[in-house]
From TrEMBL, chain A:
<comment type="subunit">
    <text>Monomer. Interacts with PqqE.</text>
</comment>
<comment type="pathway">
    <text>Cofactor biosynthesis; pyrroloquinoline quinone biosynthesis.</text>
</comment>
<protein>
    <submittedName>
        <fullName>Pyrroloquinoline quinone biosynthesis protein D</fullName>
    </submittedName>
</protein>
<keyword id="KW-0884">PQQ biosynthesis</keyword>
<dbReference type="GO" id="GO:0018189">
    <property type="term" value="P:pyrroloquinoline quinone biosynthetic process"/>
</dbReference>
<dbReference type="GO" id="GO:0048038">
    <property type="term" value="F:quinone binding"/>
</dbReference>
<dbReference type="InterPro" id="IPR041881">
    <property type="entry name" value="PqqD_sf"/>
</dbReference>
<dbReference type="Pfam" id="PF05402">
    <property type="entry name" value="PqqD"/>
</dbReference>
<dbReference type="InterPro" id="IPR022479">
    <property type="entry name" value="PqqD_bac"/>
</dbReference>
TrEMBL record, chain B:
<protein>
    <recommendedName>
        <fullName>PqqA peptide cyclase</fullName>
        <ecNumber>1.21.98.4</ecNumber>
    </recommendedName>
</protein>
<dbReference type="GO" id="GO:0051539">
    <property type="term" value="F:4 iron, 4 sulfur cluster binding"/>
</dbReference>
<keyword id="KW-0004">4Fe-4S</keyword>
<dbReference type="GO" id="GO:0032324">
    <property type="term" value="P:molybdopterin cofactor biosynthetic process"/>
</dbReference>
<feature type="domain" description="Radical SAM core">
    <location>
        <begin position="3"/>
        <end position="220"/>
    </location>
</feature>
<dbReference type="InterPro" id="IPR058240">
    <property type="entry name" value="rSAM_sf"/>
</dbReference>
<dbReference type="InterPro" id="IPR007197">
    <property type="entry name" value="rSAM"/>
</dbReference>
<dbReference type="GO" id="GO:0016491">
    <property type="term" value="F:oxidoreductase activity"/>
</dbReference>
<feature type="binding site">
    <location>
        <position position="24"/>
    </location>
    <ligand>
        <name>[4Fe-4S] cluster</name>
    </ligand>
</feature>
Amino acid sequence: MTLAFGRHDIPYLPRGVRIHHDRVRGQNVLLAPEKAIELDEIGLAILSRVDGDTTFDQIIASLAAAYDAPAERIEEDVQQFLTGLRARVYVMVRT
Amino acid sequence: MTIPAPIALLAELTHRCPLSCPYCSNPLEMVRKSTELDTGTWIDVFLQAADMGVLQLHLSGGEPASRRDLEDLTRAASNAGLYTNLITSGIGLTPRRLDALEAAGLDHVQLSLQGTNAELADRIGGYKGGFERKLAIARDIKERGLPLTLNAVMHRQNLDDLDRTIEMAVELGARRLEVACVQFHGWATKNRAALMPTREQTEAVKQTVAAAARRLSGILAFDFVPPDYHADYPKACMGGWGSAGLNVIPDGTVLPCHAAQSIPHLTFEKVQDRSLSDIWYKSPAFNAYRGTDWMPEPCRSCERKTIDFGGCRCQALAIAGDAAATDPVCVKSKDHDKVRQLLDDATAREENLIYRVNP
Ligand code: SF4
Ligand code: SF4
């Protein structure tokens, strides 16, 4: 199965996966079953827009506006980041 | 070196368990119920852990459902901000208890699988009717939408069932499957001859897992622990001794790994006597094999030393007779022929299972 997101796909964090502020290390992490993944600023910016309502396209548009960057570049980064998480079932998709 | 804060705490709440798997990772000398930590002490351990930077809490055993305060412990851990993972055989859980655990904030369940059918699973687990009860609770977990990992411990007697194991994981709605080939510590060392995978099985399991992981990408994630003695290089010891995780056993003793008590010259301290933080950062046992300074040759000048950290200390002791030696599984170890010998002996014989006993 291809894991790439289509324009109208709606990614979401399934139950058991959540963003967590790690107060001891002063950073944000994605907590998932038996796993903690450090989030950098970009990772956090992407995932905080993954709310189960916003489509892939809308996420790109919102990031492009916030970072004043070309949508194509952003799309590539977001596609890669979210596809990686989807392969581990840390992100799922509603169509 | 600067000592990193721990990420994970494995809380062995009890050594009691209705099952008696012959590869149980509990030590041969188990902790009795009368010396188990009480509810308040466990909760204090969880709060200390969260303050130290622990993110993941594994509630394990024995069978953690054998503790009647499991729900209270889960709630306290969850309130402390810990990600709570229940590692269970499913025996002792009921729909009512699952409801209570959900309400307490349980994040995830890791359910063990001893085999893919009642005959095999109940024989391996040493518990008649266990397989049916496990399936029932797996369905209850699925119905609630609780995130589920299936943990299949694989060995010579069930490795040929791997395809069916993978199918079952999908059917049960698991998001993740751990294909964990038996590691020879604790009870498993008594059962080498009965459990050691063959060379053919070892090759087959790698290929099956790789193919299934590709096919099921996005549906079922795989974590694979390959058979150890057949490998050229040892496994990394939990990201390095005292670097990522710690283990508290039922009587409050704090260990760098579940088998560490097999190293007789180390003294392990208890949460009743010293803070968890002091034990992690300052105790001689946790510092004994931290980093790379303790390493002998050939590890010291090996390019893999920050990949596998010289392998497993407990295995080095068990096979090479020295906990500070290169893990004999490594082809570069001067004791590697001993692993070869153990492997040949173990795969040449058929032996009956020796079951773990209950404390
Ligand atoms: S390995 Fe088996 S006997 Fe040991 S704790 Fe797990 S279920 Fe119980
Ligand atoms: S020599 Fe040591 S560090 Fe190198 S691969 Fe072997 S066990 Fe690992």
